[in-house]
Amino acid sequence: MIYSMTGFAAVTQELESGSLSLELRSVNSRYLEPHFRLDESFRALEPALREMIGGALSRGKVECRLNFTARSASQAPLRLNTALAEQLAQLGHSAKALLPDGQPLSVADLLRWPGVIEGECVGTEGLQEACLPLLRRGLDELSATRQREGEKLKTFLLQRVEQMDALVVSVLPYIPRLIAAYQEKLATRLKEVMGNGDDDRIRQEIALFAQKIDVDEELSRLQTHLTEMRRILEKGGAVGKRLDFLMQELNREANTLGSKSAASETTQTAMELKVLIEQMREQIQNIE
Fold it and tell me: pLDDT tens, 159-168?
């Protein structure tokens, strides 16, 4: 698969004490750059979050937002601190034995005692247990969006490769035609100047002209690079840097083709090749 570096994911996890939400946003970058926007209660988790992101992604600037929204007091589930209540009840019996005339400890007194009724409390360990699986879900969703975008980029690039290949093939017939036209033009001039067509002189001039406009090597390298692009795109994986290198090579050959051009057709072809290369280069910046 081809993966884009652009993606977004948002996942939530409902806990008894509140709602845990995670957002992941990624854009293109030469390296993997995780950035965290965390509540203070999550700062201790940052190394574990960073390790998980590094294990799932290889490139891209990734922003991770993690928030916990506690439930209001009216919504938060309450529970009885049984151990404390039993201790208080035992103390009440002991106190009653010492002071028979005293009022016994009522249920209402017991429930009003600090700590007997408590709400759900999620400590650092509990948050880590909830956050790490949530991040895994978020990374899976982010990878899915990056994959979908990557497949679109792959289709875009393969279309441009086919267009470039067609342009390269279209140039091949021009070279023999240019040489034949130059030969005819040169023979006509020599006859006008010298009164005859010097075959040796014509052959020498034709050889020099053919060498000057020879772009077989450039066209061959262009086709080789395009074949390599197809291979890389079909193989998939983290291929962005290799594709970016191929863009440099394709651009070099297109420039040479333009500089050797001896006809408007080849000049136009070189310009069209450079436009396509620039379109591909721009999109390749987003490939992992």
Answer: 999 999 999 8
Spatial distance between the Cα atoms of 265 and 269, rounded to a whole number of angstroms: 6
CA distances from 254 to 93, 164, 219 (A): 96, 10, 9
Partners of 193 in the β-ladder: none
Contact 41, 68 (CB under 8 A): yes
Q: Which residue has the tokens 């020099």?
A: 208
- Report the distance separating Cα 183 and Cα 209, nearest Å: 9
Q: How many residues does the chain have?
A: 288
Q: Can you read off the two tokens belonging to residue 209?
A: 């002209």
- Measured in whole angstroms, the distance separating CA 147 from the mean position of its chain's CA atoms is 8
Residue pointed to by tokens 């040479």 = 256
Residues 158 and 164: their CA atoms lie apart, in Å, by 10
Secondary structure (3-state) at 67: strand
- Span 202-250, pLDDT tens digits: 666 666 665 565 667 788 889 999 999 999 999 998 899 999 999 999 9
Locus of tokens 């020599």: 190
CB 49 within 8 A of CB 131: yes
* Secondary structure letter of residue 4 according to DSSP: B
CA distance 159 to 46: 42
Q: For residue 173, how far is the Cα from the chain centroid?
A: 41
Q: pTM for this one?
A: 0.70
Whole-angstrom CA distances from 101 to 87, 96, 98 are: 21, 8, 9
Contact 203, 211 (CB under 8 A): no
